[in-house]
Amino acid sequence: MAKSKYNLNVFKASLKNFVSKRKEKFNIITAFEVLEHQDKPLNFLNDVYTLLEKEGFFCGSVPNRNRIFVEIHRKINNFDYPPHHFLYFNKESLKNALINIGFKEIEIIPTSTSLGDFLKYLSPSLFYLIFRDRYFLLKRYFKTSKKSSYDNNFNGSNIRINIFQILRNYAVFPLALILYPLYKIKGHALFFCAKK
């Protein structure tokens, strides 16, 4: 689409292949929510460094491994584990990785999402704390009722799930208001910008 609609140069290649075949340099390279997916992050960062012009910028973001309730969230959700994420970053580890490659003037800023998105993140974590073993039974029940082809009342199952999620969010809302400022300070993700 970028090539046909906007007449942009588009290359389909891994970063390693792109670096080996192209000689041009870039003023800025971005990688938002990409670095945590790399199985060889220092190679990836080195390739980015090679592609940048002198004084060029590398900017992006990664999930913050120090966000609130992260350990609980990892127990109930597998998105922070391979094959999704290979790495966890906090401010220090991200800065050290960038310094190790040769980047300078590194700025890392915690970023957060809206209160509504925080509520969606917080609700399952709090329900896990409250219900523990029963949490997975409830989750399994809602998953199977949502996907079941034997359920003649399939739309009813979806309505049940939606009502449960709405009630859960309303129940958690007062605590979300209290925790949201801490969430904003710690950040859900880390935005970074570094200079070659």
Topology:
Layout lengths: L1 H5 L8 H7 L4 E7 L8 H11 E12 L6 H7 L14 H11 L2 E8 L3 H17 L1 H15 L6 H33 L2 E7 L1
Parallel strand pairs: 1-2
Antiparallel strand pairs: 2-4, 3-4
Helix pairs in contact: 3-5, 6-7, 6-8, 7-8
Secondary-structure element pattern, one letter each: HHEHEHHEHHHE
Biggest sheet architecture? 4 strands, mixed
Distance between the termini: 31 Å
The overall pLDDT, averaged over residues, is 83
Tell me the number of structural domains: 1
Total number of β-strand segments? Answer: 4
From the alpha carbons, calculate the radius of gyration and give it in angstroms. Answer: 21 Å
Question: Could you explain the architecture of this structure?
Answer:
The protein is an alpha+beta fold and 196 residues long. It has one domain (14-195): Rossmann fold. It has helices at residues 2-6, 15-21, 41-51, 70-76, 91-101, 115-131, 133-147, 154-186, and strands at 26-32, 52-63, 104-111, 189-195. A 4-stranded mixed sheet has the order 1-2-4-3. The chain is elongated, with a radius of gyration of 21 Å. Residues 145-155 have low confidence and may be disordered.
Any descriptors?
Rossmann fold; single chain; four-stranded mixed β-sheet; 196 residues
Short description:
By secondary structure, the protein is an alpha+beta fold. The protein has helices at 2-6, 15-21, 41-51, 70-76, 91-101, 115-131, 133-147, 154-186; strands at residues 26-32, 52-63, 104-111, 189-195. Strand 1, helix 3 (41-51) and strand 2 (52-63) form a beta-alpha-beta unit.
